[in-house]
Design brief:
Layout (H helix, E strand, L loop, with lengths): L1 E4 L47 E4 L5 E2 L10 E6 L12 E16 L7 H12 L2 E11 L5 H19 L6 E8 L6 H13 L5 H10 L8 E9 L2 E10 L12 E6 L5 H14 L15 E6 L14 H23 L7 E8 L3 H12 L2 H8 L5 H9 L11 E4 L2 E5 L2 E2 L4 H13 L3 E7 L3 E10 L3 H8 L4
Parallel strand pairs: 6-7, 10-11, 12-16
Antiparallel strand pairs: 1-2, 3-8, 4-5, 5-6, 5-11, 8-9, 9-10, 12-17, 13-14, 13-16, 14-15
Helix pairs in contact: 1-2, 2-3, 5-6, 7-9
Length: 470
């Protein structure tokens, strides 16, 4: 696995972050705080929170500067519009495409879906393209009834008028406290300034990524370049999320962009597959939110050959690159879990098929007992075996193997003698460096492989969420 740091070695201090988690277990570069008041117009996005480390899997792609604006045809902006309850961190984000972009979406399975989720579902049921994604932080606009849905429509109409496009070309996302409608007047009044701030630069992408964060300690943005059919194409993305993270999907928002040329049906299949391999395989606390939404736009401006079959080499190349971008963002969300001190990566092999391996991996990554043991630096591998066993996938217990990092704990269903102090040190060092704890599980000789990502469960998680609205 290649780790690509998306921030400089000397990171800026955050003026708005989860202060409650900045204790002895927080990464050193997250413990800083600037108390001086600075005008929002005179600071860059990184002045508010630093960028996340992006854990890209290895493959035939190169990480490049920028996020959603790296692919051809896209612009982005993030500004402060007065929607947050406190602070002046940017809270309005906009991503636009200069052409009709092939659009796809993946949404929460929560029945109490937020108004923007319902709106986007309705739009994508009747339209295959979109031109803009408007995102607000501060209010989730979930459980807000008919009035909340009407707010969504009016915000879309107002932006469409400014951008000279159809209302159905505008998609929306919201994040914040559930039960609160959007501060519509503040949002609509800020739209002219937001549109005027649109830029195809890295700065435009960075500001958009910061503006969608809530309790996040870091912003999540990445872009890569690869070749599809011999033609260079780019895939970019941004996401937010830190708590209420559990499939399907998580309290997370994501926007993915590409300049690859692909038909609508194929693009939607690809996005669904990548979401299942990434955002649907992360967990922080087991809660599924009302607002989870990933929107993906393909401009086609790379002049690559049109992908119209999932079985083509071009489709496989684009799928792999899309997987990499979404997994990079997803792992950054789990890494940034509320109160977390480390990322947990669970790899499962030997299952009958990918879906079975993925389900087992997620069972381990989401186990509160496993997560708590890792926070306590306790190599209690019995909790791992337990979570594998209740995942709902049948396997022969006598073929179960478990390893923690490079330390084998179980082989062929039998416990192995191991250096407990060394295993505990492995967990401690990962926590001290905000690194990665790797768990490997094998359940047989099948071809199915899957991964899931989570984080440890600390005392600070309870503190953060016990006082979320107070």
């Amino acid at each position: 696995m290649a780790l690509a740091l998306n921030h400089p070695l000397s990171l800026p201090a955050s003026r708005f972050h989860r202060v409650k988690v900045c204790g002895t277990h927080a990464a050193p570069w997250l413990r800083l705080r600037v108390s001086a008041t600075i005008s929002p117009e005179t600071v860059t996005a990184s002045s508010y929170i630093p960028a996340a480390p992006i854990f890209l899997p290895e493959g035939p792609w190169t990480q490049i500067p920028g996020g959603v604006t790296a692919p051809k045809g896209f612009k982005a902006a993030g500004i402060y519009g007065g929607l947050r309850a406190k602070g002046d961190k940017p809270d309005l984000s906009l991503v636009t495409c200069e052409v009709d972009a092939v659009a796809a979406g993946a949404f929460t399975t929560n029945i109490v879906a937020a108004a923007p989720v319902i709106y986007c579902r309705n739009v994508l049921d009747t339209s295959t393209t979109a031109r803009a994604v408007l995102i607000n932080a501060g209010q989730a606009n979930a459980a807000t009834g008919d009035a909340g849905y009407q707010d969504t429509i009016e915000c879309a109409n107002a932006l469409a008028e400014l951008l000279h496009m159809r209302s159905e070309d505008v998609l929306l996302q919201s994040t914040g406290v559930i039960g609160y409608r959007i501060k519509k007047e503040a949002l609509v009044n800020s739209l002219p300034r937001l549109v005027a701030s649109l830029s195809s630069t890295v700065e435009g992408a960075d500001s958009a990524a910061v503006a969608i964060t809530t309790t996040d300690l870091v912003s999540k943005s990445v872009a890569v370049e690869t070749k599809v059919g011999g033609i260079p194409i780019r895939v970019g993305g941004m996401a937010k999320g830190s708590g209420m993270i559990n499939p399907n999907m998580a309290t997370m928002l994501g926007v993915i962009t590409t300049d690859a040329l692909v038909t609508s049906g194929i693009w939607r299949d690809m996005v669904r597959t990548s979401v299942n391999r990434s955002f649907n395989q992360i967990t922080v606390d087991g809660d599924t939110s009302t607002n989870d939404c990933v929107l993906a736009l393909a401009s086609g401006l790379s002049r690559s050959n049109c992908i119209s079959s999932l079985n083509s080499n071009e489709a496989l190349q684009l799928q792999a690159c899309l997987d990499a971008v979404m997994q990079g963002l997803a792992k950054s969300i789990a890494w940034d879990g509320e109160g977390a001190t480390c990322l947990i990566e669970v790899t499962v092999t030997g299952a009958g098929e990918e879906a079975e391996a993925a389900k087992i991996a997620h069972s381990v990554a989401s186990s509160s007992l496993v997560k708590a043991a890792i926070y306590g630096r306790d190599p209690n591998w019995g909790r791992i075996a337990c979570a594998v066993g209740y995942a709902g996938i049948r396997f022969n217990p006598n073929e179960l193997h478990i390893s923690l990092g490079d330390i084998p704990l179980m082989r062929d269903g039998q416990p192995l003698p191991f250096d407990r102090a060394l295993a505990s040190k492995y967990l401690r060092l990962a926590g001290e460096s905000h690194g990665t704890v790797k768990i490997h599980v094998s359940v047989g000789n099948g071809q199915g492989c899957g991964k899931a990502w989570g984080c440890d469960l600390s005392y600070d998680y309870v503190k953060i969420n016990a006082e979320y609205t107070t």
